């Protein structure tokens, strides 16, 4: 149960990071995130696609939007706006300690 709670907390933190406005203006006047920062919210679709799934001792955190991988890893024309790996890194030690305590 503690692992599930940690996964849910990570999900909530990820959703919070994806709900932030951008900090850099584009030519069209919209605001975007800086390279290396989590993507700024434009439509909210990415944020709404965050999910967690648990089956026994297996817990999954992810997103369903097809363009998420381009934001996470970047493209030839756009620098990465990592958000999933950042969450994993922040909670990795917590998850490992919870798993070891079982």
Which strand order do you get reading across the main beta sheet? 1-2
The assigned structural class equals alpha+beta
User: How much helix is in the residues?
Assistant: 40-55%
Compute the gyration radius: what is it?
15 Å
Shape: elongated
Major sheet details: 2 strands, antiparallel
Number of domains: 1
The count of strands amounts to 4
Q: Calculate the terminal CA-CA distance, rounded to whole Å.
A: 10 Å
What fraction of residues sit in β-strands? 15-25%
Helical stretch tally: 4
Average pLDDT rating:
81
Write a brief caption for the model:
The protein is α+β, with helices and mostly antiparallel strands and 102 residues long. The chain has one domain. It has four helices and four strands.
């Amino acid at each position: 149960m503690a692992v599930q709670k940690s996964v849910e907390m990570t999900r909530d933190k990820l959703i919070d990071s994806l709900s932030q406005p951008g900090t850099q203006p584009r030519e069209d006047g919209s605001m975007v995130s800086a390279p290396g920062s989590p993507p700024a919210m434009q439509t909210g679709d990415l944020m709404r696609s965050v999910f967690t799934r648990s089956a026994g001792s297996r817990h999954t955190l992810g997103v369903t939007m097809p363009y998420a991988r381009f934001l996470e890893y970047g493209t030839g024309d756009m620098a990465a706006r990592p958000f999933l790996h950042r969450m994993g890194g922040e909670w990795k030690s917590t998850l490992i300690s919870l798993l070891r305590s079982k």
